[in-house]
Design a protein that fits this description.
The chain is mainly alpha-helical. It contains 5 helices and no strands.
């Protein structure tokens, strides 16, 4: 692995903070939205992390990390669009939740790969992105993403039903 650059450290620290902010936001509000301060902070940090990922080329040029950064920016854009203009009516909030949650998945995929390829220093857990341990983590994160989106949709449905009952 190439040594970490200043940009790499900035990207990593911001990414860790973004992931922590997302976990807090999901725990506190049950879904990510720019309506909450923590949601806005998470989305801003996510855009910064994705933008900085597009500037990191120390592993041989344009790669998977760059594709994930573009997908992250697209997911933030779709989520923001659906949050501001519910083009699909009441279903927009469900797709917004899925889009914003996808950004967390897109954070985790390269984060775990980098972690496993860098640590412990001098004797990392894995040598390549194709290692079974990396794939196992990626599958686990995909499963957690699916379960997390379903959990959010259930919470949103309960909230929607409660609002209709109050009317």
């Amino acid at each position: 692995m190439p040594p970490m650059t200043v940009l790499g450290w900035f990207h990593t620290v911001m990414g860790i903070l973004a992931i922590g902010t997302a976990v807090f936001t999901l725990w506190r509000h049950h879904f990510i939205s720019s309506a909450s301060l923590s949601g806005r902070v998470y989305l801003l940090m996510t855009v910064v992390v994705a933008g900085s990922a597009l500037m990191i080329f120390n592993q041989g040029g344009f790669g998977v990390g760059h594709v994930l950064a573009i997908m992250t920016l697209a997911a933030v854009g779709v989520g923001a669009l659906l949050e501001r203009r519910p083009l699909l009516g009441r279903f927009s909030i469900y797709l917004q939740a899925a889009a914003y949650s996808a950004t967390l998945l897109f954070h985790m995929v390269p984060a775990i790969a980098d972690f496993l390829r860098r640590l412990p220093v001098g004797d990392p857990f894995v040598q390549s992105l194709d290692a079974p341990l990396v794939r196992a983590f990626h599958l686990a994160f995909l499963a957690l993403f699916g379960l997390g989106v379903l959990w959010q949709w259930r919470a949103l449905k309960r909230e929607h039903v409660a609002e209709e009952g109050d009317s």
